[in-house]
Amino acid sequence: MTGLNRRNLLASGAAALGGAGVGWGTRGLRGDHDGNGTNSASGTEPASTEPAADVVTGGDTIDFHGVHQAGIDTAAQAHLSLVGLDLLEGGGGEELGRMMRLLSDDASRFTSGRGALADTEPELAESPARLTVTFGFGPRVLRMLRPAYDPGLQELPAFPLDRLDPAWGQTDVVLQVCTDDPMTLSHVRRMLLKDAAPFATVRWVQDGFRRARGTEAAGTTMRNLMGQVDGTVNLPADDHADLLWSTGRASGFDGGTFMVVRRIEMDLVDWDRTDRVAREFSVGRKLADGAPLTGSAEHDEPDFEAVDAVGFPVIDPASHVARMRSADPAERFLRRGYNYTTPDGGAGLVFLAFAADVDRQFVPVQQRMDELDLLNEWVTTIGSAVYAVPPACVEGDFVGREMLGLPSPTTSGGDA
Amino acid sequence: MTGLNRRNLLASGAAALGGAGVGWGTRGLRGDHDGNGTNSASGTEPASTEPAADVVTGGDTIDFHGVHQAGIDTAAQAHLSLVGLDLLEGGGGEELGRMMRLLSDDASRFTSGRGALADTEPELAESPARLTVTFGFGPRVLRMLRPAYDPGLQELPAFPLDRLDPAWGQTDVVLQVCTDDPMTLSHVRRMLLKDAAPFATVRWVQDGFRRARGTEAAGTTMRNLMGQVDGTVNLPADDHADLLWSTGRASGFDGGTFMVVRRIEMDLVDWDRTDRVAREFSVGRKLADGAPLTGSAEHDEPDFEAVDAVGFPVIDPASHVARMRSADPAERFLRRGYNYTTPDGGAGLVFLAFAADVDRQFVPVQQRMDELDLLNEWVTTIGSAVYAVPPACVEGDFVGREMLGLPSPTTSGGDA
Lengths: 416, 416
Hints:
The structure is a homodimer of 416-residue chains.
Chain A: H1 6-12, H2 26-29, E1 79-87, H3 93-111, E2 132-137, H4 139-145, E3 173-179, H5 182-196, E4 200-209, H6 241-244, E5 257-266, H7 268-272, H8 276-283, H9 320-324, E6 334-335, E7 338-341, E8 347-355, H10 358-361, H11 363-371, E9 379-389, H12 401-404
Antiparallel strand pairs in A: 1-3, 1-4, 2-3, 5-8, 5-9, 6-8, 7-8
């Protein structure tokens, strides 16, 4: 696969380029770009304001077609809706193919700002706002359709600390819908699920969010809901296509990858009782800017040899940053997680990782965390799944066709 | 009350200024402002992009203090979290005062980009993104604390078509948290509810969304999830302070207003079965741009006298636009609703209206809708509440103190 576009991978790994603290203190950077001084920092006048005359970005598009599926090395949009689907009882390749043909056509239209063929509210589709729709397939689908085909998709091994709830478990198909606009998200999800309804049922929907587009400077590493800068070490910006995209492993899978979904619940009530020193000790990074405890900026290399005045390591070997670090450069993957909250006050992270080889790149890291990580006191994985994410399709084709061994689309077959 | 700022009211009623269709076709308007051509409309190259180098707006603030509470005539932010609280059994004025002192201090800090006094993740508070926190009080609170005080707060009359679920009913206190950033929303809500916990329980949380900031041109009227342009007729831009803000009605309430909350469920499954002609007939407006069926642009005045070739009215008298229209200019209010979805695929509108006199301005309109409106086929109100929204407080004071007849804050009293 030579389709790697260095700038694109760089974009998704932009964390590696954003300076620590760039996202903060932006008030100082912000010019009076609306030209009418609507933003009063203080004062006794009613301060209600109209928003600044922003650049309109709803029309920004990300191409659905290409070499790889979009939504992987795409700089993360503000909103996620991840939907786990199970094929209806008795459904096989033909049904799956019809569903994927419909959904691929929908996605192709939506991502370019057009309504679906059978769209009942096409006006809601006119602002894609960097919409991407990414499809993945669970192990059962490949076992059922192509038992001899092995692109490298295996269920994750058991991790003893997991407390898995089947309600968030492995499904046959996953749809990852991401966009900067929440209206677009809700409309696109609704239309996709209408078209999927004759073929599959929804097991779960995992919605998530990051900072809105424009809140922070592009490239600022996100924080999770524990307040930590989360994702500083991500797949580096260049020369690591081999860690992200599959090559030569199976026919029809070149340019594909694998998606790991882990739903990680946070115990914020207990976290709140933990003082900042203990928090930073557990993470191994400073909360203020994400700098390692041995450094002064987010992207400084942690110094695991450094000791304090009485000889203890500054970064505890059981801290998250120490446990996640590997001497093996292959133990890396692209992280693209989203925060979530629940109506009852719960919170957590929809951890999403993409890797060309899950067993080689992701599993050892997760095993180390499972064995020992001070952060485990406050985080529990309650859902887990893994999907084969085939390459993109060309226009008129559908995602996964080659991988699933299905025939080319014909002119027959209906829309929902 | 002379504090009305014409530009501000204009901002919230900005719908009246936005041209029809301004929000669409923005791709044409959008310059290549990122300077690197990342947005490919089509093509075979992988189109993953980094976001444009937007103006950073997370630092934009709206003053919590002033004459009126913010979040009313503030141009609607992208995200809403509306929280209904009930005071704990036995809680009276003293407890409510302590809670409001804490929450007002929190809100004052959060809206200026600072963490709360007891904030456990203050870094998450550093991008207010036009955050507003607005407080209202239900009828029971005034009856309990000041039975003789009458700013004009009454429960709404019964509307026969309502199918009210007490789970979404009247509460003692409401917090309206709005911001353009979903991370800020979740953090601020969590911290406010932590500080409220010793005094009150959460009855409901109603989250909602509009277009993200920047998706459309400022002033574009929002669409609801039925795809309709929703909110074209809003409180006009000038000379209607009397319809929004209370004056001379009760001591400590000048500059206050009332908030009506109606949770309106939409039957999108049935709506989807309805063709566009029938939809437009029911609404009385065109779906494409919100123009009345007798006009060509969103803000054209509907012509209720116009008839078609066979003599039938072009805008049916039972259509939504006809039923909502009143010859009485006092039957208007400021609408500030948000769309909602539920995990099971449900959808609707958190309808929020602000008016100086609910009985005079809102109730007749709602009664007309209840009596007859073709849209009722698809919408059902399942929650309803009304709140007195006092004026803003000055720095160091707390919202509602005068209205609730509570003593000035002293230096005693603790933080949560």
